[in-house]
Amino acid sequence: MRGAGAARVIPLVAAGAAAASGVLILVVAADAPSRAREHATREEARAAASLYELPGATEADVLSLLDGRARIVAPEAGGAGPGAHAYRAGALEPAAWIAVEPRDEGSRWPWAPSVLALLGALCMAAWAAGRRRSPPPPRFPAAPAFLCAAMFALVAVTAQQWARGELEAISTSRLAGGLRAAEIAGAAGADPEAAARVAGLPWASGAALGEPDRIWTMPREVGAAIAAAPRLRTAPRYTVAAGGATYHGGSIALGPGPPVRAEDPANNLHLVFLGYEETTSPAVALIASSLGCVLLVSLVLFLLPLAARPRALSRTLAAWGFLTPAAALLLLFTFGPLLFSLWISLHDWRLVDPAHPFLGLANYRALLGDGAWWSAVRNTGVFTLHVPLAMAVALSLALLTRESRRAVRWARLALFLPSITSVVAIAVVWKWLLNDGYGLANRALGAIGLGPVAWLSSPDIALVSLMVIGVWMVVGYQMVVFQAGLAAIPRVWYDAARVDGAGPWQRFRHITLPGLRHTLFFVLVTSVIGSFQVFGLVYVMTEGGPLGATDVAVYHIYREAWEFLRFGNAAAMSWILFGVVFAATWLHFRFLERRGAHA
Amino acid sequence: MTREPRAVALKGVQKRFGDVTAVADVDLEIRPGELMVLVGPSGCGKSTLLRLIAGLEERDAGEVWIGDRCVDEVAPGGRDVAMVFQSYALYPHMTVAENLGFGLRVRGAGTPAIEGRVREVADVLGLRGLLSRRPGQLSGGQQQRVALGRAMVRDPGVFLFDEPLSNLDAALRLQTRDEIAALHRRLGTTMIFVTHDQVEALSLGQRVAVMDRGRVQQVGTPAEVYERPANLFVAGFVGSPPMNRLHLVRGRDGRLAGGPFVFPGPLDHREATLGVRPEDLTLAVVTRPGPGPQPDSVGMSGGAHSSAEFTATALRVESLGSEQRVHLDGPGEAAWVARAPSALRVAAGDRVEVAVVWERTHLFGPDGSRIGAASRPGGASPP
């Protein structure tokens, strides 16, 4: 009874835990922007107070600085409103407080990821409701657990993207506020140093850039980077990468006389700000926490019903004990690299550059407009058209050799050879055979008076040549599978059809084809998957050429990674290909299951 | 449905598979409208013979005639026959309706005609509610009916049945047997029915052809085959339990003798075999071993008060409810079986007196063929 009760509670626990995981992810994601916003507001209040202390600055200057978010409050007013930061401008008499409201723009909560997380939790709840009706057998709920983990990983990625956007907006506005404060201070007669202090940001004068001894507060490598780029020396806003980080920066003209942005960059005051996003990178924590949460919940779900049954629990633990080495290997060498490639695909990952900035889905977005990639995908699709052709040939051969055992044996021997031969050897031999000048194929054509065909060097023909070789390579294997399928069709159906008056074509149409449909489907799916992954033929024979006519997906990925060293892009391509192959395989397994249920 | 039934004639038909002769020189006439059963042990060639008639096997010699034409060069579909297979051979990917209509469809019949005919047959066989199902969703009995219906739809001149009841359970087999008999009465079509079950053969066939090793051993009505088996094989194959046998040898006095029996003749055979059906023996219990109660004076089985022919010991008694089978340790070396009414009180170990109904016995010559009934032995030597 206890076990049954637990079984009924567990789905609720599962749905609740899924919801809690989602909330946790989102809270972690929202944390960094909220802290950055708070920090920015405090700094703004401090800058406003410093400005107010400047002899030349007026109250209007201060208020204009922060777009009306600042108020000057009397000490007895009891401080600022909720969320505001107050700073005492102590040098003035009477003492006044500057209170600054936090900036309002941007969203405070990652709504889009929240919706995703809600959907995830709803899915879990739906699953849980399904389980409620039939108590779960003691089996690790692998499918929902991994689905949920994937869902929440997606939530984590989008939340991270949201956070990054927020942080960037706050960083930019923080820099803008600093520059504006320095500008007002300069206009009020402050010298560059005083103006920079008001802004509260690392600074250097245009003249001192690139001269390490004269830079006081700006990191030297940043100053050197700005000095090295003439365009930046006069730009009002820029971002600059130095020392493995990206800085937001800007310049204003300060100096004696009216504040005119001089052509002479020596007069400019440069302020830089290390963007908030570089100091916080919560993505790892986000994804790790989401995966961890879901797997932990699944584990608890799995063990809870077993706790009521000690024998089952000990048996299960023993089973997992035996499974652990294999599972560890699987995790380490299969799922580990898989997830690592997913990780790479979310970053700008180049072999030569030690920095791997996070890009979110940008690699995938870029692929949408990548003509070369889609051309490779299209070539793969065209190449895959050799599969039905090969199947037709293989089926005909299987039917022809059906009646004679000796013919079956010889056909198998001859046609199965390509399947057990190294693809490189095959490719090399075919490359010779199809050579434009001395290849056997063109010589044979020449002997009967036909002109040479540019088998592999013509963009129009090369892919077709590869398809013909593809047919030749798979036909033996397919034929053997078809022979097995044909042998499984009871002869008595043919007898019945003959007595019913069916001719050879009708028997093929009504007995053979329906009897082979599982075999046909199996061969189709496995061959199509194999065709999606074609690499060796292309690599050895054409290297994707001529003019990219035989550039197929796997070969394209290979080049992207190992020739152009763009691992991020290559990983994103791999995942798209993986998605297609996975869908095909999943369909296949679904079909097999259905067939199993009907058999 | 009212078609002229066809005659089937086999003239010297032979079929070999490699070194094995499946059908050796068979001559057989099946009359129009007759239900002929081919029966024999497995491997006797009866199924091959049926497939030769259907055209599913190529004959090596001889002729097959269906109706008034020789069909040796005619494809199975053109022979005006329909066949029901042991495994039913329903097309698994078609619905019942499609299975039934397949023969008409491949002949190019129009959809309305097919549907009408399928419905007609489905009504006869009670398949109306199953038309949209697939064979995999049917019970064995239902599949059997669909197979029957598929044969009926084309309204053939000859029905061929290849052990169609073997895959059914016992009760369903009896019921289907009756239905096939009823169907035959109703359609009046020629039917050839292959079975290895001699009970099925005797109960169903108007005539029975008993086959062994590729040859027809005897053709006749069930009564003829049972009461006057042409040879030892037929005698042994037909009837359950099989006929009891006793080997007889001509003694020095010129009389055939075996076991306790000495027969007056016939003298022109050096040896012979006596055959007695188990129901032609009557038993009386005389003594019971050990102290227990002795049998009440005398328990007799069988109606006739024939004097005891020999005595034997009951080795084993099988009770079948309506009757019992008593295994005896005599009369000769071989053990005999007697059928006795269940009222007879007999147990293993009892000494029993056995009488023989001599008019119904059989005497087979050295080549196995039947000579006639054995006459009552002259001087029965004491046991």
Give an overview of the whole structure:
Chain A contains 23 helices and seven strands. Residues 257-262 of chain A have low confidence and may be disordered. Chain A has helices at 2-53, 59-65, 111-133, 142-187, 192-199, 220-228, 230-234, 276-279, 283-307, 310-345, 362-368, 371-384, 386-400, 405-420, 423-433, 440-447, 462-487, 491-500, 504-515, 517-532, 536-541, 553-562, 567-598; strands at 70-73, 85-89, 96-100, 203-205, 238-242, 245-253, 268-274. With 383 residues, chain B is of the alpha+beta class. Helix content of chain B is 22%, strand content 32%. A six-stranded mixed β-sheet of chain B has the order 6-7-8-3-9-10, with helices on both faces. In chain B, helix 2 (96-106) crosses helix 3. The longest helix of chain B has 18 residues, at 170-187. Chain B is elongated, with a radius of gyration of 26 Å. In chain B, 42% of the residues are buried. Chains A and B meet through helix 18 and helix 19 of A and strand 6 and helix 2 of B.
Quick structural overview:
With 599 residues, chain A is an alpha+beta fold. Chain A has helices at 2-53, 59-65, 111-133, 142-187, 192-199, 220-228, 230-234, 276-279, 283-307, 310-345, 362-368, 371-384, 386-400, 405-420, 423-433, 440-447, 462-487, 491-500, 504-515, 517-532, 536-541, 553-562, 567-598; strands at residues 70-73, 85-89, 96-100, 203-205, 238-242, 245-253, 268-274.
